[in-house]
């Protein structure tokens, strides 16, 4: 046993706390693979006073060209200004802020930036710096966009799918009922596309459907919906019509018929298809979306038999 073993003070001595000097800390931040930036919070324009190698690699901007500038130089035409506005609110309130926004590299290419900004205060409580960490999440955004598109769009034509059709139609009927307006549903079936598939192949049939979908959208107003119901069946929903809208609906039918039946240029020559169209109008023909679709479908078959 040593004298220290009997010294009651030995257990009261705290262990030494490891420390790091400012230069070593700066070296650690500079070596981070993530993009790191520091802005001077004492200047209203928040100029950059530090960027690490990760920032240069992510953005393509050399350190010398970035320092002294507000990092808005990373923004461009596709940057969502609503997101930028939310960032400004967080900065003005001096709190941790996170945002995902489209940024532009020095060569003009884009990347999705998951930006996290943290305030750094002086010992007296004043805000001295903003430290930002940037992560390139372009691949993640692309995956999320693809999943969202798959949930709402027909993969071939890019038109709305049946799920979106049902939701949109319910909403249009509800709004029309409340406002005393009408909703028209047009059910279209291509008459000769099977012959195109048989004679030209399914690729030609797919190209035909894509072009017809594009033409139909061009005939309609921006708020109207075109959906692929299945196979060669397409549905159009036109909302916010006056109750007496027979003339407008007839114009729509004629405009869609002309758009569909114009020759479609394909690699092996033009093709022409016919179309059968059925119409149902809320509230005259039905009070709900499902019944409107059924009535329009039945009217389409009557049109097909009459041709």
Layout of secondary structure:
Elements: H1 3-6, H2 22-31, E1 35-40, E2 48-51, H3 53-59, H4 63-66, H5 81-92, E3 97-104, E4 110-121, E5 127-136, H6 138-152, H7 162-179, E6 182-190, H8 193-200, H9 202-219, E7 225-230, E8 233-241, H10 246-261, E9 275-282, H11 289-306
Antiparallel strand pairs: 1-2, 1-5, 3-4, 4-5, 6-8, 6-9, 7-8
Helix pairs in contact: 8-9, 9-10
Task: Explain the overall architecture.
With 307 residues, the chain is α+β, with helices and mostly antiparallel strands. It has 2 domains: 124 residues, Beta-Lactamase, CATH 3.30.450; 154 residues, Alpha-Beta Plaits (2-Layer Sandwich). Helices cover 42% and strands 23% of the residues. The chain is built from 11 helices and 9 strands. The strands form 2 sheets. It has a 5-stranded antiparallel β-sheet. Strands 7-8-6-9 form a 4-stranded antiparallel β-sheet, sandwiched between helices. Strand 3 and strand 4 form a beta hairpin. Helix 8 packs antiparallel against helix 9 and helix 9 runs antiparallel to helix 10. The longest helix has 18 residues. The radius of gyration is 31 Å and the shape is elongated. The model has no long low-confidence stretch (mean pLDDT 90). This is PAS domain S-box-containing protein/diguanylate cyclase (GGDEF) domain-containing protein. Pfam families: GGDEF, PAS_9.
